[in-house]
Design goal:
Elements: E1 7-15, H1 19-35, E2 40-46, H2 50-56, H3 62-68, E3 73-78, H4 88-100, E4 105-111, E5 127-133, E6 137-146, E7 150-154, E8 157-158, E9 163-164, E10 167-171, E11 178-184, H5 187-203, E12 208-213, H6 219-236, E13 241-246, H7 247-256, E14 263-266, H8 268-282, E15 289-293, E16 299-302, H9 319-331, H10 335-351, H11 367-376
Helix pairs in contact: 1-9, 1-10, 1-11, 5-6, 7-8, 9-10, 10-11
Length: 379
């Protein structure tokens, strides 16, 4: 997006648990940083999440999706509550937003930060990013369970760039319960995520992208993704080199040397797993910012979950939400503001006393205090 615009409308779904607490801090830090570039925000709040669902039985109506599409960007807190069966809100809100707005990129930076303990000692700063395809693979919602050994499954779906029509009929002999889940990788999806990974590498001043698959075990699904990614890079980005990594081997090497990788290009399932491993190696989900990015409305969120057990206690860590706000700023073209936020987080963590750290990092600072500390370090 073009950063010359001065006022931006932001759809906000603060969500469940600690979501409202951490999003409040992300908003105040983003506002302060953006003001240095003369930019401001109109926050358009939406109530969707567990409490709204339990009260109204409404998850996310299409009318709200249409309204959200009129805003410039979205900020999401956290979705999930033990009172709601797992999958209802995740599919009804998170996946609906990703698919409706064709947010085909899941962007997950992993950076080690000062005074944030890491499970593996680091000899240098960790700074990598998972570029995950976000609309295909096993997350397409195509599948079902049968108790009698046969099934007839509708394979109809719509994506931003194509429609799929068909049925899947299966029968087991002897008849027994089974589950089937269909995964697809298309040339359309694999090539555009490969382009995004290459552009990300260029912005980072790097010349290599690592393609992460499991083509030896699933050659049709992941061999195809791998081949399309390689062909796209070679044809369109001759300045970018590629290498390949089986996802299991990559996880092994990441733990042994977390700083060895830059841009990791992953299909949907593996990107989900690898990005959480990267977050752990960088110090935990409390540092993990995320973006769901497409050519229309893009959505930015911390990925730590709703943590209902600490909601309202002040123990929530807003760092991941604040860094997600920085990703949002950069997406809007407010690069200087984004850099201010990221620099302020690092300065605060480097200069604070132990007690001034968030509870998650062994300190005593409340969620609001951490946000205030970051504000004070904005240059």
């Amino acid at each position: 997006m073009n950063g010359t615009k001065k006022n931006y409308s932001v759809a906000v779904v603060a969500g469940d648990g600690i979501g409202p607490e951490v999003i409040a801090e992300a908003k105040k830090v983003a506002e302060a940083a953006a003001s240095s570039e003369g930019a401001s925000f109109e926050w358009v709040e939406y109530p969707f999440g567990a409490a709204h669902y339990l009260k109204t039985n409404e998850i996310l109506p299409e009318s709200a999706l249409v309204e959200m599409g009129e805003t410039d960007v979205m900020l999401l807190g956290a979705i999930g509550d033990p009172a709601v069966k797992p999958g209802i809100l995740e599919r009804g809100i998170l996946l609906t937003l990703r698919f409706f707005f064709d947010q085909y990129v899941n962007l997950r930076p992993a950076m080690s930060l000062p005074n944030v303990p890491t499970p593996v000692p680091l000899t240098e700063r960790m700074d990598s990013v998972v570029v995950r395809e976000n609309t295909e693979d096993l997350y397409m919602g195509l599948g079902g369970v049968t108790q009698d050994g046969s099934c007839d499954l509708d394979m109809t779906l719509e994506r931003g760039g194509y429609s799929l029509r068909g049925r899947l009929q299966l029968a087991m002999t002897p008849g027994m319960p089974f589950a089937a889940q269909v995964a697809l990788n298309t040339k359309y999806g694999a090539s555009r995520i490969a382009r995004y990974a290459c552009e990300t590498a260029k912005k980072r001043g790097e010349s290599r992208v690592t393609i992460v698959t499991k083509a030896n075990a699933a050659p049709a699904l992941y061999g195809f993704f791998e081949q399309v990614a390689k062909e796209t890079i070679e044809a369109e980005y001759p300045q970018i080199e590629w290498d390949l990594a089986n996802v299991d081997a990559l996880c092994y090497h990441l733990v042994r040397k977390p700083t060895a990788y830059g841009v990791l290009l992953c299909p949907n399932l593996f990107g989900d797993i690898v990005s959480d491993l990267q977050a752990a190696l960088a110090g935990g989900l409390g540092t993990a910012a995320g973006g769901n990015i497409g050519d229309g409305l893009s959505m930015f969120e911390p990925v730590h979950g709703s943590a209902p057990d600490i909601a309202g206690t002040g123990r929530a860590n807003p760092i991941a939400a604040i860094l997600s706000g920085a990703l949002m700023l950069r997406h809007l073209g407010l690069d200087a503001s984004a850099a201010k936020v990221e620099g302020a987080v690092s300065k605060y963590l480097a200069q604070t006393t132990k007690s001034g750290l968030p509870h998650e990092f062994g300190g005593e600072a409340s969620c609001t205090e951490v946000g205030d500390f970051v504000l004070r370090h904005l240059d």
